[in-house]
């Protein structure tokens, strides 16, 4: 049976959007539940500016408090060298740098242009190489940007290629606002695949428009075998009531199984984590 890997995003991408300041113990309980489900990678924290994302300020406490399961890589987002140093001090197993395919989102999210962000990642990559730490790359807004509108596929391809050239082992392609259609995902992926092989790509689709599962199926057709998801569908925009967050891990799991694909996840353990996650939503 074909294997697909789901990378769990809930404790980071999910919880970063929650308005209520969630105590570290609750985040730790969620990660510990997720550690029982069979994931190989769980993104547990981000070491960004606490002024920008107060919800993620306690990343070191979360990493210190979790019970690490064997074979699980606990990941953290790092926007710059300071973030990388904090992530290392906290014991993150691997890190991720994040860029955007659109200038508008780059400015809004990390306060610099795309080119400036790539320059800022160079010392992070150097430090990671010296510390023998793996680095994942994200490209946000690969099809749609909340500021710039439609994003040309060539732009997503260019940024993905640059992140790979810098030394990322995989690039995760983000439909940040969940506005993509399967057709747009296809066009974007075809452009990216000219530069990066499918084995080094992941799909990171938010479900705001309700089409994330279709977008995953389109990506499967084009050879992508890694997808990011958040248990319980954690996330969503606090300024758009009812808007969905990342596609729910359990929904992706069920769809993949229905398609005859294996995820290696324990469905009962996944459900237990999803229940905790749903209880955390504001
Ligand atoms: P800036 O204000 O331009 O940065 O922010 P700066 O370098 O001028 O620093 C300003 C202050 O922040 C300084 O402190 C720095 O020390 C501090 P002050 O002197 O004023 O007291 N600072 C930090 N503190 C702790 N840790 C750090 C750090 N860096 C600077 N790492 C910056 C630039 C990138 C830092 C800021 O814009 C930022 O933190 N942005 C992150 C926003 C974010 O976390 N967004 C969500 C994650 S991305 C995402 O969700 C998309 C994804 O899921 C994929 C998808 O869906 O598309 C991955
Ligand atoms: Mg995201």
UniProtKB/TrEMBL annotation:
Keywords, ordered alphabetically: Lyase, Metal-binding
UniProt enzyme class: lyase
Domain Pyruvate carboxyltransferase: 4-271
Organism superkingdom: Bacteria
EC code(s) of this entry: 4.1.3.4
Record InterPro entries: Aldolase_TIM, HMGL, PYR_CT
Pfam families the record matches: HMGL-like (PF00682)
Pathway assigned in UniProt: Metabolic intermediate metabolism; (S)-3-hydroxy-3-methylglutaryl-CoA degradation; acetoacetate from (S)-3-hydroxy-3-methylglutaryl-CoA: step 1/1
Gene Ontology MF: a single term: hydroxymethylglutaryl-CoA lyase activity
One of the GO biological process terms: ketone body biosynthetic process
PANTHER family, per the entry: HYDROXYMETHYLGLUTARYL-COA LYASE
Similarity comment: family membership: Belongs to the HMG-CoA lyase family.
Descriptive protein name: hydroxymethylglutaryl-CoA lyase
